[in-house]
Design brief:
two-stranded antiparallel sheet, mainly alpha, Citrate_synth-like_sm_a-sub, 489 residues, 2 strands, binds acetyl coenzyme *A, Citrate synthase, binds oxaloacetate ion, Citrate Synthase, domain 1
């Protein structure tokens, strides 16, 4: 709590209880101030703390961290030897599905209910997170704050964070010319990862590490890198888009716009309705607990104390796979292909099912369906469907996507292989982007990647706060397993 809000007691009486209250309040403020100085090593923060109503993101984190570190210390001391998961031979060969072995603070996935960001479902986030003026969808800056602190931010905190991101925007010339000189046929995801790696020269964590900063302070420069990367990503992503598909020009960041609206202007779109979609899109794609490929890759590379630029670029290489983030590109190609086969006529569900079977019988997966954890329709699919029902109910491609939703789950169930026949997030994003004129599907995973930065890097900040060690699970050979089981017969 800030001092201005904590010291608002009446001045009329000076009875002992009130006096005691004031003394307690001053003592609390003093304690908070010492925490702020100890954690941020920044006397500016101390001055700001006593002169403004809202702590910055870094200051709020500094206040939260000591209790969380204490909680983890106590948990390890009291329950360090308890078993939270096992791993069978099948799980070791089967992609470690459902083996509980990672700590990720930012979100938790339930197979039936879907994702909760720091305990909040998607509808709760849509309800509680601050919105743009006149808007109804959450601002992604809000979820960045939520994932980092575990707290729903106030409007003022989000505005302050938005302004901070604007200040951090801007790319070095060599990164701009590098992107402009990439061959046009280089996949946008390769361009994104390469551009982020080039920016690594800016890493504040790498510089601090070289200077010998203490382990307990690693999180500060990791947070700085996180905010820098999040601030610079819209321009990187927009420059890739404008160079590959348009005129190569990107306007400067506008200090009066939020992060998502700025991104849209840079991409070349100027529609308030599309801004709303972008805010929702960039919020819901941020995080999906720690075991998905992009989050796990970021965490793994970060565990070697590779800086956030290296770690996030590694995550993006994973997101670029067709079984993970690239599925959203695949979905749109597949849906447009179906639309072309169908032509202008109406098609029955049975006829559509026959077309789905054609792909399955040729050994292909139905993109956008199935999930490694989820066993119900992904709530990220549902909220995008609700957006479509509200804003584009009569769009022909949306109608086809809706018909696919009716047809594919029974087909996959009949095929009997997939554990989850329901759609995931990727089954719906492309149709919305098409509607607002962003038609280049090869580019779609870059949008996913811009959003995912918020989740995986917030998580990396917590890896450093908790001083998690290098990740190094034990691997075994088939030969060693065969020997082991022979011996135990
Ligand atoms: C943001 C995201 O990453 S969401 C996921 C995006 N990816 C996709 O949409 C691609 C299509 N879906 C899939 O390939 C899978 O469902 C995955 C990769 C998401 C999950 O994989 P798994 O956990 O291994 O799924 P599951 O245990 O259900 O797989 C069992 C079998 O069903 C198959 N299967 C799963 N989903 C599908 C699908 N959509 N279409 C056809 N077959 C499928 C698997 O290929 C596997 O077949 P196999 O035994 O011949 O190897
Ligand atoms: O959770 C997963 O494995 C994949 C996914 O949906 C995501 O990363 O968003």
């Amino acid at each position: 709590m800030s001092p201005s809000s904590s010291s608002s007691s009446s001045s009329s009486s000076s009875s002992p209880p009130l006096m005691q209250k004031r003394i307690d309040c001053i003592l609390t403020m003093e304690k908070d101030a010492i925490t702020v100085i100890n954690q941020t090593h920044d006397h500016q923060s101390f001055v700001r703390y006593f002169t403004t109503a809202e702590p910055t993101l870094k200051e709020r984190l500094a206040q939260i961290i000591p209790a969380k570190i204490e909680e983890v210390k106590q948990l390890k001391a009291e329950h360090g030897d308890k078993i939270i998961g096992t791993c069978t031979v099948s799980q070791a060969y089967g992609g470690m599905r459902s083996v509980k072995s990672l700590i990720t603070e930012t979100s938790l996935l339930d197979p039936e209910e879907g994702i909760r960001f720091r305990g909040f479902t998607i509808p709760e986030c849509q309800d509680k997170l601050p919105k743009a003026k006149g808007g109804q969808e959450p601002l992604p800056e809000g979820i960045l704050w939520l994932l980092l602190t575990g707290e729903i931010p106030s409007e003022a905190q989000v505005q302050q964070l938005s302004k901070d991101l604007v200040k951090r925007a801007g790319l070095p010339d060599f990164v701009v010319s590098m992107i402009k000189n990439f061959p046009k046929e280089m996949h946008p995801m390769s361009q994104l990862s390469a551009a982020v790696l080039a920016l690594q020269t800016n890493s504040k964590f790498a510089a601090a590490y070289q200077e010998g900063v203490k382990k307990t302070q690693y999180w500060e420069s990791t947070l700085e890198d996180t905010l820098d990367i999040v601030a610079k990503l819209p321009e990187i992503a927009a420059l890739i888009y404008r160079t590959v598909y348009k005129d190569g020009k990107v306007p400067a960041v506008d200090a009066n716009l939020d992060w998502a609206a700025n991104f849209n202007r840079m991409l070349g779109f100027n529609s308030h309705e599309f801004d709303e979609l972008m805010r929702l899109y960039l919020t819901i794609h941020t995080d999906h607990e720690g075991g998905n490929v992009s989050a796990h890759a970021t965490h793994l590379v970060g565990s070697a104390l590779s800086d956030p630029y290296y770690s996030y670029a590694a995550g993006m290489c994973g997101l670029a796979g067709p079984l993970h983030g690239l599925a959203n590109q695949e979905v749109l190609s597949w849906t447009l292909d179906l639309q072309q086969k169908i032509g202008n006529k109406e098609i029955t569900n049975d006829q559509l099912a026959d077309l789905v079977w054609e792909g399955l019988n040729a050994g292909r997966v139905v993109p956008g369906f199935g999930h490694a954890v989820l066993r119900k329709t992904d709530p990220r699919y549902t909220c995008q469907r609700e957006f479509a029902l509200k804003h584009l109910p009569n769009d022909p491609l949306f109608k086809l996507v809706s018909q696919i939703y009716d047809v594919v789950p029974p087909v996959l169930t009949k095929q009997g292989k997939t554990k989850n026949p329901w759609p995931n997030v990727d089954a719906h994003s492309g149709v919305l982007l098409q509607y607002y004129g962003l038609k280049e599907h090869n580019y779609y995973t870059v949008l996913f990647g811009v959003s995912r930065a918020i989740g995986v890097l917030s998580s990396l900040v917590w890896d450093r706060i908790l001083t998690l060690p290098i990740e190094r699970p034990k691997s075994i050979t088939t030969e060693s397993l065969v020997k082991e089981f022979k011996a135990s017969k």
